[in-house]
Amino acid sequence: MQIKNKPLYSINYEKELNTPQLEAVTSTEGPLLIIAGAGSGKTRTLTYRVAYLVEKGVPAHAILLLTFTRKASQEMIQRASRLLDNRCANVPGGTFHSFANSVLQKYADRIGFKKGFSILDHTDSGSLISILRKEKGVSSKNRSFPRKQTLLNIFSRAVNKSLTIEDVVIDNYPHFAIELDAIEDLFNAYKRHKVKHNFLDYDDLLTYLHMLLTNDAEIRKIVSSNYFYLMVDEYQDTNKIQAEIVYLLAGEHTNIMVVGDDSQSIYAFRGASFKNIMTFPKIFPDAKIIKLEENYRSVQPILNLTNSIIDNAECKYTKRLFTKKTGGMKPVLACTKNEYAQSRFVVEKIKEIHGETTSLKEIAVLFRAGFHSFGLEIELAKEGIPFIKVGGFKFLESAHIKDVLAHLRVLHNPDDRISWYRIFLLLDKVGPKTAQKLYNDLSKKNTGYSGLFTLKVKPAISQSMSRLKKLFEYIDPTICSLSQIGDAIIDYYTPILESNYDDHPKRSKDLEHLVTIMERYDNIESFLADMALEPPNTSMDDSFSINYSGDDRLVLSTVHSAKGLEWKTVFVIWALDGRFPSLHAIKNSEELEEERRLMYVAATRAKERLFFTYPNDVYDKISKMMLYSPSCFIDMVPGSNIEKQYID
DNA sequence: CCAGTATCCCTTTTT
DNA sequence: GGGATACTGG
User: Is the peptide bond before A581 cis (omega within 30 degrees of 0)?
Assistant: First the structure.
């Protein structure tokens, strides 16, 4: 390699990277596909590549690093800065959604929106759909009509997979085929209303960016020439629209690097397809392909097991991992008498391992679905073991947080019908009808949120309305700081909170926490965008996260949220046929394969010790079946690769 | 037309 | 067991 002769590089890339990694880092021009197995130093490679480009003289702002979460990109950029110097900190990075948001906010008028549009999360989208459904009078007496969440799934699936509503209904929801016309009608109304009220949902961020780049050659040129080097992480979890956005951005210069692992693709439900990886060399025929197959994470016995999980896959994946790490213990499959015994087993093992000087944050418990950890959480609380839960229900989705945010959102986007509706519904004696009427009156005035001050209301609600008016007179964003506004809203909201919820003390703490988040922002716009696009993804209902000040906590996480992370010891609970894989997936081979990849992702998180547990006396109410077999993915593993235990 | 109570349904994963 | 809807009284 020529680097040797170039003293202008301060980092010794040759020494710190293995051969394929080095090649990935130094191949800067032209299209590049990296197939990176679990634990093969993918993050390291991306980090060094950022440093290498900057060191080579590429201005930081000309590099774009698209990742799956903002946390991932921040971490890589920080590491690169430590490796080289602060120039790396200016590399723009984030998710596709946040990137789309920043471009679209700039060119909102070109896609028929006003600046300052709001971003709908799925709760918001659901509210809008249910408002529209009521308006349309789609009879709710009709039992066969899909619920709002289902409707949203149908819409989102269609958009993400570039299908029509009809395709999705026929293929995935054949029992709703009779209602096809009404569903399509609702979909169109939903689309129109988003434009009218200046809303973009998650899918819109991608579709409108795609549309803008496709139809507007001028903008495409501006945007794509801003970023001369593109890097995309977790490429196996991008969907068709995201892949096309990548092509459009890279079209001019083709300096595009994508990194992924086809055997870790776990977002098909969102339209992602590992086939994007296979397609990449077809779109860019001169693409260089590099495989990273040496695993630096796990000991050999763990790798033996994970390799057997993926060997049983229907489709053969592109690589096989090896490691130089020897020793280590064989993974354990523990069958427990019932759910309680499973929780006890995990708690006892954790205490044992923790005693041997492993810190708690080096241990994780992983599961298929958020609610699977409920039983364990109770036991952990009893034992006083601090933990943090990632994934599942989120802090921002809870009603009280959405209530407070609604007041902020209308300051920024006065057309935000969903938030006004929510605000009015909170007033005493105001129900759906009145809330709707109040919103209509307000929007007719067309004077932004100040229209509220001159709103006429019935005597029954005049008192609560005047409190609301007073609040909005005070919280002028041109005068108050964001956290002052937050405090004022919470003062206003507290009596409402106390009358609506029995558990208000707990919820009150969440609101305090929200204000501390606000203190980090200096404007409403970026605060709201982050809350929608990068919400804190830990759930707040565990009191430990507030009371416990240290950071040595056990991690509980869904497998999806554990992507890309690693721990010394990993427990995979509910490794039970019917839970993981879920019953839902067993009948469909594509979905079953995705569950297998999910199990693979879970198992490959472990560095030294790996435990699977399952209770064997579970009655499933939906299917009216007893569940007692271990997950088929673990059951298929040859006996020599796993140690089976029975815990009474 | 609001708000409280009864009843039925389905129950994944996330930006 | 929880959320969404249906029904009923005020």
Answer: yes
Hey, what's the torsion of the CAs at A402, A408, A413, A414, to 10 degrees?
100
Q: What is the mean pLDDT of residues A169-186?
A: 82
Most trustworthy range by pLDDT among A36-50, A302-316, A351-365, A453-467:
A36-50
Query: Could you give the 3-state DSSP secondary structure of residue A519?
Result: coil
Mean pLDDT, all residues of chain A: 88
What is the rounded radius of gyration, in angstroms, for the C-alpha atoms of chain A?
Answer: 26
Q: Phi first, then psi: what are they for A476, rounded to 5°?
A: -85, 115
Average the pLDDT over A282-306 and give the result: 94
* Distance separating alpha carbons of residues A195 and A417, to the nearest angstrom: 12
Cite the DSSP H helix spans in A297-398.
300-311, 339-355, 374-383
How many Å apart are A577 CA and B10 C1'? 20
Any atom of strand C under 7 A from CB of A503?
no
Among the residue ranges A36-50, A77-91, A250-264, A443-457, the one predicted with the least confidence is A443-457
pTM exceeds 0.70, yes or no: yes
In whole angstroms, what is the distance from residue A375 CA to residue A340 CA?
Answer: 7
Where is A403: in which H helix or E strand?
Answer: helix A399-412
Window A115-174, strand C contacts by Cβ < 7 Å: 126, 130, 133, 140-141, 147-149
Amino acid identity at A172: N
Q: Which two structure tokens, joined as six digits, stand for A463?
A: 């008192």
| Minimum-distance nucleotide, CA of A139 to C1' | C5
Of the pLDDT bands very low, low, confident and very high (cuts 50, 70, 90), residue A34 is very high
Which residues, including other chains, have CB under 8 Å from residue A23's CB and lie 6 or more apart? A290
Contacts of A280 (CB under 8 A, 6+ apart): A31, A33, A235, A258, A287
pLDDT score recorded for residue A375:
86
